[in-house]
Amino acid sequence: MSAAAKHAAIAPPNEALFPPAAERERIDDYLTRELARAQSRIVAGSATPTLDMETFRAELARFDFAAPRPLKSLLDWSIPMLEHGIVHLTHPRYFGLFNPSPSFPAQCADRIVGSFNPQVASSATSPAAVALEAHVIRMVGRRAGLPAQCGGHFTSGGSEANYTALLCALTRAHPKFASDGARAFPGPPVFYTSKECHRSWVKIAHQAGIGRTAARLVATDGKGRMSMPALAAAIAADRAAGCVPVLIVASAGTTNAGMIDPLHQSADLAQRHELWYHVDAAWGGAMIASDTLRGALDGLERADSATIDAHKWFATTMGCGMFLVREASAPSAVFQVTASYMPSHEVSVDPYMNSAQWSRRFLGLRLFLSLAAAGWSGHGAHIERAVAQTARIREGIEARGYSIVNDSPLAVLSAVPPPKLGDPRTVVERVLKSGRSWVSLARFEEQDVVRICVTHGETSEQDLSILIDALTLSA
Ligand SMILES: Cc1ncc(COP(=O)(O)O)c(C=O)c1O
Fold first, then answer.
1. Ligand 1 atom 5, closest CA
2. Distance 308 CA to ligand 1 centre (A)
3. Does 6 score more than 80 pLDDT?
């Protein structure tokens, strides 16, 4: 075949995948406008899904991907799918799990990153992005009270950050864990967290190969906090039985009820027994932004490592977690590896040598833009507003016969309705059915509760009144 024929055989770029610049701009503008319209409909509509899932599944089945379809019509299909087919975190009456309505700077960051698509595995490919992430992590670590040599990295979320903590603890606990795994230990390695902990810890024990029972779920004090006598007793019993304790995890903001374990006493025990000390502050950690509320996290500064999710109370888009570590070099003992094809091999810098992920998205720009645009004070105000609104909800529902059974400094209530309204499950079902708000059913200290958490930065006084009315509607 001649050289000319060879050239002729190469097809042009696929235009459906890579449209010309003018077409991209037109669709981008269209998307921006349509998304803004959808958001204003969401705010005025139902917080809960209204899509008929049977019809939707039938529509979905028709996507056999045989014949290409025009992108615009696909966008016109995708936006209503999300508008009607999910619980809306961007609804101001979503009083739900720790998922935020994302801040606008974080959304801008997502758009920028999506456009450049930097590979943040190595410093050689993305020197600016790697340096920016390291800077943000250090600033957050310092704000949390960790020393100047602290480090860490962005993660997919709190679960990955927690997993990283367990691997660091195991690696430090035995010099041969890296090569031999759990077999290196003279007895089964175990770690401690409270029975109110996030259940990622159970999965993490499984993933790490030490088995789910290695996660010792310590009793609480009747108020949702890890019991220190029970923790001390569990460590002693495990030692006597030949197990090898490696880690204590204190929760700073339990998922169900926002309770903060005794951080100093947990640190004291970890120090006494030479265990790694991790604080899981996935949601509550953002309180470091508030000068008036951050005192509730006193003791966080003693952690060997901590989890703080930017995609929770720092209100970035998902998934954007953070693993913060006292000694910046600790993760490289776990994740260090040699790979000749990688363009850089700087163990103190390159993310692929310091974290569980390899190819990775540039996550840090979201928190960077949010923090730079609002400052610590802006984020502090966001948190203080949520806490003040929580107090307002409490007042409103207590006046109508509810009792609040948790005592959290964060923005979450564990509420028990008066008998005339029915049990918590019935109340939650009624609220969700009304579509006027989203709250959830949770367990706190062996009882069902209505879990009400303020997560949206633009929830108004009127939204609070609508929630209170929805919570006190009788059948
Ligand atoms: C205390 C705590 N830790 C860890 C996690 C897990 O975080 P992610 O869902 O980002 O993996 C959560 C999630 O709610 C949490 O509340």
1. 158
2. 9
3. no
CA angle, 156 as apex, 151 and 161 as ends, to 5°? 45
Residue nearest to atom 8 of ligand 1 (CA): 158
C-alpha–C-alpha distance, residues 398 and 393, integer Å? 8
Is the pLDDT at 1 greater than 80, yes or no? no
Over range 456-465, report the average pLDDT.
96
> Of the candidates 304, 418, 311, 269, which has an alpha carbon nearest to the alpha carbon of residue 97?
311
End-to-end, the C-alpha distance of the chain in Å comes to 80
Return the pLDDT at 2.
56
Q: Torsion angle of alpha carbons 304, 147, 350, 368, nearest 10°?
A: 110
Burial status of residue 16 (CB atoms within 10 A of its CB: 0-12, 13-18, 19 or more): exposed
Q: What is the DSSP code string of 290-355? A: -TTTGGGGTTGGG-SEEEEETTTTT-PPSS-EEEEESSTTHHHHHH----TTSS---TTT-GGGTS
Amino acid present at 68: P
Distance of CA 389 to the CA centre of its chain: 22
Contact between residue 162 and residue 206 where contact means Cβ atoms under 8 Å apart: no
Say which range, 94-103, 207-216, 454-463, has the weakest mean pLDDT: 94-103
Output DSSP code: residue 443. E
| Contact indicator for 177, 184 with CB cutoff of 8 Å | yes
Q: Does 321 sit in the ligand 1 pocket, CB within 6 Å? A: yes
Residue 5: is its pLDDT beyond 60? no
Q: Which residue from 270, 268, 230 is spatially nearest to 248, judged by alpha carbons?
A: 270
Task: Give me the helix-helix angle, 104-116 and 364-398, nearest 10°.
Answer: 150
State how far the alpha carbon of 175 is from the alpha carbons of 172, 184, 185, 277, in Å: 7, 8, 10, 18
pLDDT at 172 over 90: yes
The pTM of this model reads 0.96
Interval 59-70 mean pLDDT = 96
Residue 368: what residue type?
A: F
Whether the pLDDT of residue 329 is over 90: the answer is yes
Confidence check: pLDDT of 150 > 80: yes
Model confidence at 3, pLDDT cuts 50, 70, 90, reads: low
Of 46-55, 111-120, 434-443, give the range with the top mean pLDDT: 111-120
Average pLDDT rounded to a whole number, residues 374-403: 98
**Which mutation among 164, 279, 283 tests ligand 1's pocket best, with the greatest number of atoms within 8 A of CB?**
283
**What is the residue-wise DSSP string for 224-239?**
SSB-HHHHHHHHHHHH
| Dihedral angle sign, alpha carbons of residues 293, 296, 302, 306 | negative
Instruction: Give the chain's length.
Output: 475
Q: Separation of 181 CA from ligand 1 center, angstroms?
A: 26
